Amino acid sequence: MERIPILKMGEFLLVTIQVDMHDRLALTLQDDLTSQIVKHKARGVLIDISTLEMVDSFIGRMLGSIAAMARLLDAETVVVGMQPSVAITLVELGLSMQGIRTALDVEKGMTALKVAVLDTWEDADDRTEL
Amino acid sequence: MTVLNSESMELHSSEDIVLVRQAVRKKAVALGFGLVDQTKVVTASSELARNMLNYGGGGTVQLEVVQNDRRSGLRLVFEDQGPGIADIEQAMKDGYTSGQGMGLGLGGAKRLSHEFEILSKVGEGTRISILRWR
Amino acid sequence: MASKEKLAEILSKRNSHIIEKWLELQLAGGKKLSAAERQETTRQSRDFLDALTAAAKKGSIDDISGPEWNRVREILTDLSASRAKGGYTPSETAGFVFSLKRPLFATLLEELGGDSAALGEALWQVTGLLDALGLLTTETFQKTREDIISRQQQELLELSTPVVRLWENILALPLIGTLDSARTQVVMQNLLDAIVETRSDFAIIDITGVPVVDTLVAQHLLKTVAAARLMGADCLISGIRPQIAQTIIHLGVDLTNVTTKATLSDAFAIALRRSGQAVVKAEKRAAGETR
Hints:
The structure holds three protein chains of three kinds.
Chain A: E1 6-9, E2 12-16, H1 23-40, E3 44-48, H2 57-72, E4 76-80, H3 84-93, E5 101-103, H4 106-128
Parallel strand pairs in A: 2-3, 3-4, 4-5
Antiparallel strand pairs in A: 1-2
Chain B: E1 2-11, H1 14-30, H2 35-56, E2 59-68, E3 71-80, H3 88-92, H4 105-111, E4 115-121, E5 125-133
Chain C: H1 2-13, H2 15-28, H3 35-58, H4 70-85, H5 90-98, H6 101-112, H7 116-160, E1 164-167, E2 170-176, H8 181-198, E3 202-209, H9 215-231, E4 234-238, H10 242-251, E5 260-261, H11 264-274
């Protein structure tokens, strides 16, 4: 069965979505990412959607679910490369992508992930100070 | 308004949703739609196709190229023989859940289109038509 | 009935005579024509008359929308479109058809002079026919002109609001003049494309030069800010004058999640800070000092 490949880059996972995904493929991706995060104890997930020409509410919700699940597993998520026409359409569609971190490209996404991971470490430090 | 040509597709699986999106994209490109307009109509079709599959038990999609005075447009008609929608107004509200949430499907598709029409009868089926001008 | 065949017959029989007289009329009148234009007019006239004759034989003279008249309509549409582009006036274009009346009437008079009923009928039919064809040219003419204008408007749109690269990572879009819905949309798309192209995390939309902001414009601004955010960039709005601030509040537009500043320079300072950059005073070096 076709799957979307997940690459490991240090303590981060990188996913590039290049195909027009049908719903089952999207759900498989969610499952695969969850197991890979646990398997590699990944601290961050970078999802590259720069070649996606359409994001509908299903894919939008999938991205949201991935971010939420990742956080439960102590990993941060960033979605990069959203095309302008996709962004304009999503705004019109009314889909709130709240809770999903975004960046313009992979490089900036990596930087954002590193900062986000550092922030959670700092939070952890604060919390242990009782 | 005249219909210049018409194409029909069957929708019975989630792979069919992808095929519908691709067909809509192709038609929109052929009509000379700008990139944003293309994306809007393709996204709207994806929303309605998924709704029809999940809540209407599948059905047919009609892709029509229409012309009015001096402008041309793309009209999509989604028709199913499913359970129908009891309260259309409620269904149009975003995030609506009846245990079977249509979420942003209907409202979203309407916002992405220039014209939107819905006909539904409980026990008989639903017919949704959207149109985007070039 | 009889006169329809009569008309077609007369057109055939006297074709060369009619053409000669018609061309005389067209090439003599008013506008000064170049050799190429004279050739073009001659060719068009012959084609038109031939097509007219053929159509009159086969089709109904009262209805020029039938398939027998396709060729005639085609010729007129092409002629009209090219004249619209070529700077001719609508009258000069419709004149092509109307000028055929004189030689045609004269010929009909010669042929049907003795039978006043037949002559009357023929004149009536020809008048109706040429009027309809003349009006057709006017419609095509208008449409062509409108297409040209809308294309020019589009080009003007794209030229009139350039996106400026203020600094590394920071773009500015100074909007000037009144914004209508169409213009605003194009401008906003350009900004988002520029954000991707230049990999800028920050964009400042400056509306100092915009006299009026209505609900539609305000909504487009908000949508642009939201879209930029989705893409991973931050969008600020500057140049909000007191009157505009009041209008926006009265319109009920919610700007709480958007950073707004009165001046472009204030917005620039914020963008610099957020992007981890700063502008510092250069150290003065004494004359002769080397680094």
